[in-house]
Amino acid sequence: MFQGSYVALVTPFKDGAVDDEKLRELVESQIKQGTNGILPCGCTGEAATLTHEEQKRIIKIVVETVNKRVPVLAGTGSNSTAEAYDLTKYAKEAGANAALVITPYYNKPTSEGQFRHYAKLAELGIPIILYNVPSRTGISMLPETVARLSKIDNIVAIKEASGSLEQVSKILALCDITVLSGDDSLTLPMMAIGGKGVVSVVANIVPAEVAQMTSAFLEGNIQKAKDLHYKLFPLCKAMFIETNPIPVKTAMKLLGQLNGELRLPL
After folding, report:
1. Could you give the CA distance from residue 99 to residue 83 in angstroms, rounded to a whole number?
2. Taking CA 102 as the corner, what is the angle to CA 130 and CA 83, rounded to the nearest 5 degrees?
C-alpha cells in the first residue's frame, strides 16, 4: 500500500480558521491528478499550530472526502506520548489507513524512549509510519532503533527526512521496512537504493509529475523517472527557500489555488 507519491497536504485557512470547503477541494484535485495517497496534518499542514479538535476534524474531513479511493496517512505525532496516543486512536476510529508519527521533538528522548513511544502507539493496531526529521525535532532516529521497531508487526514504514542516503542505506541493510522519502529533491536517489516513494511537499503544486516520477521508477522506466527528477529538481529546492510551508503556500497563491494564508509564527 505505502508506495508512490503521497502529498503532504497544506491546511487551508480563511480568516484564521480552517477552510473546510477548500480542504475538500484540494483533496479532490489531488486524487484527480493521480496522487497515490493523502497526508493531512503533517509539518506541511502546520500541525504544530492546530488545536487537537481542528486536527481531528481535518482528519475526519479528509477520510470522508477520499472515501477509500486512495490511502490516507493521518499525521498524529506529538512530543507527548499520551497526546500522540489520543490522536492516533482517533485516526484509527475515523478510518485512516495509517498514522504518520514524528519523533518526539524538543524533549529529545533517548533511543529507548523513542522505542517505547512508538511501541505504545503500535498497541492501537493501526499501521504506524515512523517520521524522522531531525532538522525540525532536534534528534535523529538511529538505524538500529528503526530496525528494532520494524519487528513490531504494525510498524510498517518510515518517512526519512534526514537528508542522508547513508542513513537510508543503513536502515535498509538492517531491516525490511518500507522507506518513503521526506525530501522531494532526494526522492529518486532514495528509490534508487531501495525506497518506495515520497511524502511530498512539491506535490501540492505538481501532483501529476511527482506521481509519474515515482510510478515510472517502480515500473522500471528509469529514464523517464530521471527526466522528471531533473525537471522537478529546481522547483523542489525552491520550496525550501524559507521555512516549509511558506514557499508552497505562496506558490499555490500565485497559481490561484489558495489564498496563501499562514498561521503565526509563520
Report:
1. 13
2. 115
159 catalytically annotated = yes
Predicted TM-score (pTM) of the model is 0.95
19 vs 207: CA distance, rounded Å: 21
Task: Round to whole Å and give the CA distance between 160 and 145.
Answer: 13
Cβ pair 209, 231 in contact under 8 A = yes
Catalytic residue among 60, 118, 131, 196: 131
- Reply yes or no on whether 118 is catalytic: no
Domains and CATH numbers, the chain: 4-254 (3.20.20.70)
Three-state SS letters, 154-170: CEEEEEECCCCHHHHHH
Q: Write out pLDDT tens, residues 88-146.
A: 999 999 999 999 999 999 999 999 999 999 999 999 999 999 999 998 898 999 999 99
Say yes or no to pLDDT of 1 above 90: no
Which of 159, 224, 230, 253 is flagged as catalytic? 159
